[in-house]
Write a structure and sequence with these properties.
Blueprint (H helix, E strand, L loop, with lengths): L8 E5 L4 H16 L3 E7 L3 H9 L3 E4 L7 H17 L4 E5 L1 H13 L4 E6 L10 H14 L5 E4 L2 H10 L7 E4 L19 H6 L3
Parallel strand pairs: 1-2, 1-4, 2-3, 4-5, 5-6, 6-7
Length: 203
């Protein structure tokens, strides 16, 4: 039997390829250079999907439709379950709120040892309708039981995550300033993303 340790297997999941293309390419390629086996699952219908493939990233296609349609959730559940059944991943990292909910549940069912959620902006915030805020906060608290590590990119979200215990017992919450939504004074999400950040990202 070989004593050579096998590669760490990492699954990265996001709704759209944008976070990978604009922000995470340098990190993913550095992990690959260090011997980590990285698979990236995201919406194959986005223009950046082809760019990631051309850059040499190993992609797994997802079909992401409107979130208000039940069929979207069912399709993603089947696709994510098939992806996680095909390979024994050591770690799953998921980005953005909606797809993180179903990914964390499927990853728990697949018994992936560790699940990290990078929240580029938590979905609940002040000046939001009370019912919507309660519902979204409740979903995040439910999914927390399947979250080992929560990474947040603004201080308001980090404070809320600590207050609401948005990770499982013994899990970690870390504030890492970076690309994401900043909501001073509890204002709503800005509607336009900065194109400068995307253009400035490394190939």
């Amino acid at each position: 039997m070989s004593d050579t340790p096998r590669q760490l297997r990492l699954l990265q999941v996001a709704n759209q390829p944008g976070p990978f293309y604009c922000f995470l390419r340098p990190l993913i390629f550095e992990l690959m250079r260090r011997g980590v086996e990285v698979d990236v699952a995201c919406n194959q219908g986005d223009a950046n999907y082809r760019k990631l493939a051309d850059a040499g990233m190993h992609l797994l296609p997802l079909d992401v439709g409107p979130w208000r349609r039940l069929a979207t959730w069912r399709t993603l559940q089947r696709q994510l379950a098939a992806i996680m059944a095909a390979k024994p991943y050591d770690l799953c990292v998921v980005h953005t709120p909606a797809i993180s909910w179903i990914t964390r549940l499927v990853a728990a069912q697949a018994r992936i040892p560790a699940v990290a959620y990078t929240a580029h902006g938590l979905p609940f915030f002040e000046r939001q309708g009370a019912v919507s805020r309660w519902a979204l906060r409740s979903i995040e608290r439910f999914c927390a039981r399947h979250t080992d590590l929560l990474l947040l990119v603004n201080s308001d979200d980090a404070a809320a995550a600590e207050r609401l215990h948005l990770v499982k017992p013994g899990g970690l919450i870390r504030h890492i300033p970076g690309p994401g939504w900043t909501r001073p004074g509890g204002s709503r999400f800005p509607r336009r993303r900065s194109s400068t950040r995307c253009a400035a990202s490394s190939p």
